[in-house]
Design a protein that fits this description.
Helix content is 33%, strand content 19%. It is α/β, with parallel strands linked by helices. The strands form 4 sheets. The protein has a 7-stranded mixed β-sheet, sandwiched between helices. A 6-stranded parallel β-sheet has the order 6-14-7-8-10-9. Strands 11-12-13 form a 3-stranded antiparallel β-sheet, with no helix packed on it.
């Protein structure tokens, strides 16, 4: 786990546990191993990376749509870090049940929490609890083959509303509107393919509160919408409103300029008579719509049958205000994708409003607002679910900087022997998985993809992998 100690250095490596094996956790571990203190020989480190899932990569495996072209590059980068062998991976280990904070303090000098944010942010409007109203994050977990969600999803609606103007909203809308056969080239699980294949959907509507210049998605996400076969993108001229702040943003921000340019080109190329659109499915982008109520009707009590929005207008600052005009859309399902929210962690303070662990620069705080010695946070559980995956590197760099600054005053682990944590897990009957186990599962999923390809030569589709979904199967394959 560590190199030979130079003369004058501590008698043992600094033992660090990282809870969460997504990008935030892997980046933190990697940055620590590459810190000047370590590379200069002044410090050696021994790092264990824990995750509640049997497989690593967190958000990349269970939170990003399978048809994203950039996924492979990020996975390859994370794989290289973990494949070096200087960071141990323990999967299928749940903090709070399999291991407590006291356990971690006993075996490690420092603990970094990188557990992310996986819950849907709330949308408090009437009707949000009707049958057919869903959280976007829950749907993402389903189509990404999350081991802890049901295998089936009720895809019964012909007309669907997606609330939100961020990347997740576009992911949800794209997967709902895309033809299932076009997803076979991805790692989509078989049960997800079967569900999407049977979907009767014809129209997916995406609603945002503000105008085209205030959207929160990225140019890449927007362009991907146009890559879906047999899906027409529909825009509405009355939604294209720009105020002074919008014009300033377009002139000063190339990303906003690119997205507004793409949207205006699309609406310019769109036929005036929408009946001339020929695709079997339509993806509608609506701006300046604020959700008011989801409703049912006497013929379908308790089930979503429509949704009411208030028309908005920009106020000159880029923000929107209500016009008092309301409009109804017939939809049979609603997906809220207005953001993620973190979850509390056992024995740590929690800011329920922001969904984060209270911290200063990554140093976790107690009830009095003082740093808890040896306890740190990074990623979305540190700063909230904002920014792209790459932004977690900056978070990790800040957190690791403070950990290294504190290293001489950290409370020492009582039992720092690397074997001791393994003995504890085995003593408790925890079926933990390892990096070697992940390589087995990874190879197995690729073999499933090759077998499917060989069995369907006429389709001309090469499946790189088929994702294994049941937790028990992942554990069995990894530990075989």
């Amino acid at each position: 786990m560590s190199a030979t100690l130079p003369a004058g250095t501590p008698a043992r490596p600094l033992r660090v546990a990282v809870i969460g094996a997504g990008p935030a956790g892997v980046y933190a571990a990697d940055i620590l191993t590459k810190s000047e203190a370590v590379t200069s020989g002044a410090l050696t480190v021994s790092i264990d990376l824990f995750d509640r899932y049997p497989a690593p990569y967190g958000l990349i495996r269970y939170g990003v749509a399978p048809d994203h072209p950039r996924i492979k590059g990020i996975v390859n980068a994370l794989h290289k870090v973990l494949d070096r062998g200087d960071i141990r991976f323990f999967g299928n280990v749940d903090f709070g049940t399999d291991l407590t904070l006291a356990d971690l303090r006993t075996h490690y000098d420092a603990v970094i929490f990188a557990t992310g944010a996986i819950k849907d942010a709330d949308l408090n409007i009437p009707g949000i609890d009707l049958e057919g109203s869903f959280g976007g994050a829950d749907f993402v977990s389903w189509y990404d083959g999350h081991p802890d969600v049901p295998r089936e999803w009720p895809l019964e609606a012909k007309e669907i509303a997606v609330i939100g103007n961020g990347n997740v909203a576009l992911d949800v809308a794209r997967i709902l509107s895309k033809h299932a056969d076009d997803l076979l080239v991805t790692e989509i699980p078989d049960n997800v393919y079967a569900g999407l294949k049977a979907s009767p959907v014809t129209d997916v509507h995406v609603f945002g509160r503000r105008g085209p210049a205030q959207v929160k998605f990225t140019p890449l996400e927007l362009r991907e919408l146009s890559h879906s076969k047999d899906v027409d993108i529909v825009l509405y001229a009355e939604d294209f409103e720009f105020d002074e702040a919008s014009d300033e943003a377009i002139q000063s921000n190339n990303q906003i300029k690119t997205m507004v340019g793409t949207l205006t080109n699309w609406i310019a190329e769109q036929p005036e008579d929408l009946s001339e659109l020929t695709a079997s499915r339509r993806l509608h982008l609506h701006f300046l719509h604020s959700p008011v109520e989801i409703h049912d009707d006497p013929a379908h009590p308790g089930k979503v049958t429509g949704m009411t929005f208030e028309r908005m207008q920009l106020d000159g600052t880029g923000n929107a205000k209500g016009t008092g005009e309301f409009v109804d859309y017939p939809v049979q399902a609603v997906y809220r994708a207005i953001g993620y929210h973190g979850s509390p962690l056992a024995e740590l303070e929690y800011d329920a409003r922001r969904g984060v662990i209270p911290n200063e620069g990554g140093r976790v705080l107690d009830t009095a607002g003082s740093p808890v010695p040896g306890i740190y946070a990074t990623g979305w559980i540190k700063r909230g679910p904002v920014g792209l995956i790459g932004h977690t590197k900056g978070d990790a760099l800040e957190t690791i900087g403070f950990l290294l600054e504190d290293r001489l005053t950290l409370p020492p682990a009582q039992n720092p022997d690397p074997q001791a944590i393994i003995d504890l897990l085995e003593e408790r009957g925890v079926e933990y998985t390892t990096w070697e186990g992940w390589n087995k599962l990874d190879a197995h999923e690729k073999e499933l993809g090759a077998a499917w390809t060989a069995a369907h030569p006429a389709d001309g589709i090469e499946r790189e992998r088929v994702k294994v979904v049941p937790r028990e199967d992942m554990i069995r394959i990894s530990r075989d």
